[in-house]
User: What shape does this take?
Amino acid sequence: MTTFDVSLVRSQFPALSQTVNGQPAVFLDGPGGTQVPQRVIDAIGAYLTRANSNTHGGFLTSQRTDETIEAAHRAMADFLGCDPDEVVFGANMTSLTFMISRSIGREIHPGDEIVLTRLDHDANFSPWKALEERGALIKVVDIDIEDCTLDMDDLRRQITPKTKLVAVGYASNAVGTINDVAEVTRLAHAVGAMSYIDAVHYAPHGPIDVRAIDCDFLACSPYKFFAPHAGTLYGKREHLQRLRPYKVRPAGNEIPDRWETGTKNHEGMAGVTAAIEYLADLGQKTGATGDRRALLHSVMSTIQAYERGLVVQLISGLLEIPGLTFYGIREPERFGQRTPTVSVRVEGHTPRELAEALGERGIFTWDGNYYALNLTERLGVEERGGMLRIGLVHYNTAEEVDRLLAALGEIATGR
Ligand SMILES: Cc1ncc(COP(=O)(O)O)c(C=O)c1O
Assistant: This one.
């Protein structure tokens, strides 16, 4: 296989063969979490069977646990383009971000400024807003509500010589907008501030290169890219070494240990490595060559191209549904600026009603604000049930998009 073979992909994900009311399930809930390939399930089982232990012991299962942890750091380093000890594992992105914001808060002085955005998930907002307790001044960048893109002029205005940190999403988990995070980082660095990138939504949809972005931190959650529930954080070595974590005394003071508080989710880490291996393997099957980093970079570009085709079909079909309001970038020539995640409302139905009607037909979508609370408030939909979110990933098919469009069309027109 030298092209993208979606049936080969799907055959590796056992969850995708489930049915609902006699219909094959359609998983359009990826932005909330993705399904996992069989090898991830096997890796978790294998860890628990052969290696289950705590760390740094003088016996076999403990040594295997140490190897499992090291392998997971190497795998994520290849995914992100950094060194293994610049990867911190944690429970999820939210917890990791609260942890880092608390540590950065130790260096914040009254009058220091932090720049946030209205487009972000609340996990890249509230942990920073909490630093108001330390006297930080929080500034919030607005969006253009016509296409749900970040107002870059406003961002430039909000960054001042007092700015200590700019926190921005790589892509919006609600409307799919991709932000120019390298440019945001450049603007932050120009005033001596750090950048904190939330790549949770972007990660399953395209290659990430933290060195090219030059960001100071970048967080993402493997459960959004075909791995088990876990969170990961890239931090520049100098920051992970300099900042002071809140930690227990006997725990190691080296990086990344000093940031990985308590006993880790070892079986989850085994699953993360297996998910990265799955992606690298898919890279090889789609014709890529080179080391694992090269395979990952290539496969994520292949996935991006495949998803681009699906989102063209999805958005053009949605725009034909009577009474449908579409939020976000809709022009095909601008689809390089978005992920295949879209949010809509349909006149006469709450988003929950739509999600339930689709759910009865075996089609899984999300409704509400998906924690992008500033955005739903800015769009004026928070009080009205938010929006219906349809999220595609690389295991979705053109037939599934057709099923969604037909079903939503029926519900919208009451047929
Ligand atoms: C863009 C974005 N950021 C942050 C989060 C929070 O991630 P976690 O569940 O790992 O805390 C999510 C989860 O949906 C998300 O979509």
The chain has 14 helices and 17 strands. The chain has a mean pLDDT of 98. Residues 31, 92-94, 121, 123-124, 169, 173, 198, 200-201, 221, 231 surround pyridoxal-5'-phosphate (CB under 6 Å).
